Amino acid sequence: TKLKVTMVAWDRHDNSVITAVNNMTLKVWNSFTGQLIHILMGHEDEVFVLEPHPFDPRVLFSAGHDGNVIVWDLARGVKIRSYFNMIEGQGHGAVFDCKCSPDGQHFACTDSHGHLLIFGFGSSSKYDKIADQMFFHSDYRPLIRDANNFVLDEQTQQAPHLMPPPFLVDVDGNPHPARYQRLVPGRENCREEQLIPQMG
Q1: Where do the WD repeats lie (predicted)?
Q2: Of 42, 77, 119, 152, which alpha carbon lies 20 to 30 A from 137's?
């Protein structure tokens, strides 16, 4: 099989060029001499996502159709950390894109199932008390168009961007406790009684 490059990225200081190759390897090249510095192995399918850290030239994120998201140390040519995107009852989700936050403390990925994966550096303890499932109560509501062809929420007849902040619910539509509702932009300073949805 002829080797093909599937993706290319530069490190933040332009000292290295990283290529993803269809043999499931990443190659790190000296951008001035063209010399091969490292061959990085860890993926089990083709890689289409290479995202350099916004200010640390040693760090690179890679992801691909194998569902693996890998954080690499380019200076040493080693894997720092990896995550496998296993979706219960469906197998793994191929990762289609990855972007790092401007401060370099978080990165987010999207997968073939439409999921958003958010990662961060440091302790995850503040997220341990967050519910496993969070949806807005208005997710998946039907939309309609008015006489001017503007989009409206079918139930409220309002433009979606003019609707009040939604409530957080689980997969079955059951509202989460008030402490979670304050996570929704626009509900941070609401009184307790304003954080309990009126069902019916």
Answers
A1: 40-82
A2: 119
- Of the three residues 86, 104, 122, the one that is the final residue of a domain is 122
Residue 74: give the domain boundaries: 5-122
Taking the C-alpha atoms of residue 170 and residue 105, their distance in angstroms, rounded to an integer, is 28
Q: Residues 40, 72: contact at Cβ < 8 Å?
A: yes
What does the pLDDT profile of the chain (200 residues) look like in tens digits? 799 999 999 999 999 999 999 999 999 999 999 999 999 999 999 999 999 999 999 999 999 999 999 999 999 999 999 999 998 888 899 999 999 999 999 999 999 998 899 998 877 777 777 888 889 988 888 999 999 999 999 999 999 989 989 999 998 989 999 888 988 888 888 888 888 877 54
Answer yes or no: do 164 and 117 share one domain.
Answer: no
Identity of the residue numbered 15:
N
Q: Which residues contact 4 (CB under 8 A, 6 or more apart)?
A: 21, 22
Is position 200 within any domain?
Answer: no
Closest CA to 199 of 173, 179, 178: 173
Q: How far apart are CA 97 and CA 50, in angstroms?
A: 9
Specify the pTM: 0.68
**What is the tally of structural domains in the chain?**
2
- Based on the fold, state whether residues 94 and 176 are members of the same structural domain: no
